[in-house]
Amino acid sequence: MPRRTYSPATAELDANAIAEAYRLSGRLTATVTPRIIRRSDNRVDLVFEVAEGRVVETERLSFVGNRAYSDRRLRRVLESTQAGLLRQIIRRDTFIAERIALDRQLLTDFYQDRGYVDFQILSVTPELARDRGAYFVTFNIQEGQSFDIGQITTVSEIPEVDASEYQDIIRIRSGETYSPRVIDSTISRLEALATQQGLRFVRVEPRITRNDADLTLDVEFVISRGERVFVERIDIEGNATTLDRVIRRQFTEVEGDPFDPRSIRQAAERIRATGFFSDAQVAGRPGTAPDQVIVDVDVEEQPTGSLGFSASFSTDTGAGLAVNFSEENFLGRGQALRFGFNTTEGSQSFTFGFTEPGFLARDLALTLSAFYNETTAQNRSFNTLDVGARAGLGFPVSEFGRMNAYYGIEENQISGLNATTSSPILLADQGDRLNSYAGLQYAYDTRNTGLDTTRGVRLQFGAEYAGLGGDAEYLRATMLAIGEQQVAREEVTLRASFEAGAIETLDGNSRQSDRFFLSSRQMRGFDANGLGPRDLTVANRDALGGNMFAVARFEAAFPLACPMNTGFPVACSTMSARSGVWTTPMAARSMTTCIGVRPWACRCSGIPPSGRCGSISRIRSNSRAMT
Predict the structure, then answer these.
(1) Chain region(s) in the chain for CATH 3.10.20.310
(2) Side-chain half-sphere of 601: how many Cα atoms within 13 Å?
């Protein structure tokens, strides 16, 4: 600081602190030397000479002793990444010694979650290259054997507790791969049942019996009385921007509640999962009395907003410009704010979204959104204008299930149709219409959060009614089912999806803006609005949409033989196949071959261009198209 007495020892400490900051950013060869420039009146200027050096990268991450999983699969587990082809742009591969401890924990959790209870990391060796420009990190591991779950029993040491009731709600079964996470989830479920029955200070402890002969672990859940310890207070530090209540709502306990170490750990995981903090530590310490515990929460905030500009060119929509802004922790309140503007040749759109995840201090997510979409003869021969707003309220209904209720109002406008070249079906839809609707949507998702992270399902069902005022009255139902399974030592992901929808009008024919149009996400290999019924008796041959649709997709994603050091955390390529697509038009008219099919689009999904790529032979009178 200026006007302070100069001290060589203090200057050396400051130089070391600057060098340490460089080291944490990956510049291990940086040197900082304090120099003084003498001035008059017994004064000196202190100058730090810095030689930054270059960033030291992780050139290679390798493993020794791994038999069950490949090096490529284990690299995906680690926080550290090795240098890629775009190392000058992407700096995620910078070597940071402190990250090794996290990598050790992540690797241990990965193996133990797959039944390798004897897994050990014998050593981690970072070797610096001769030119001191890169590190080679080697993990020497010992996998051991994978154990399955054997017998599962429940006993109670509390007279008033019936162990059979707790045994009935256990979801794990004999023969499944043993995982500490599965055991912990089961304990949480059993303790939650005890809370529902009005029992306090009940603890469930697992007793594991090892059977080396058949590689199984017998699990006995013991229900017993725990210590009478209460939460005295929750202290939060490090949140300069985020409000205390945003962190506190991640806890199920408040001051005065019984202290549950497992619940505290789960709250710490929820705090980290918000994405607001680069680090979050939660620990308990003794309180002012023997039966009191103080919970300390120490967080380190990180940026949560983004602003993006992009320009694009497409053969379908021409040149385009997009601006997007998002803030996941708006004003430190934990609220999400997003808006975006997108313009292309013949279309403009604006979207706005706001989410309050803790509405009314409950686990209720309030969502407000608005949109504006305008198209001028883009992939069609008429103009559209859609303006609307929507409000929704989401809440959990089960461990993996969530319900969302919403209401929306929008105005649709269709114009620019030609009576001589456009379909009479579309001519009937021309003009303005106000649509007021309400709906319910249920989603059940166990992917990456269920008992087995190598497989999971997503089920989604929706029902919507329009007729709460406005000009339209209809019932719409949609459903989506996805099943995923990782095979071949988790190198290949198999995915099967089924999606369907139907609309039933209550006031006559459906309108073009209400009907279903399959997108390229739902069925690859087709031009925009290229799949579905069209009226080929008129010149424009515009897409009409369908009152019903169904899509079945079957995919296999796996890495191909290509350079892995690209710097991007994605697979090199994906092979996929899809089949079973059909739509139903809104009226019985003569339909023949679909138009707009692009066979060359097969290259996007890895299918040879000579393949059919899901093209349609024809649409019959019953309006069913088979691939």
Answers:
(1) 57-142, 148-225, 230-301
(2) 17
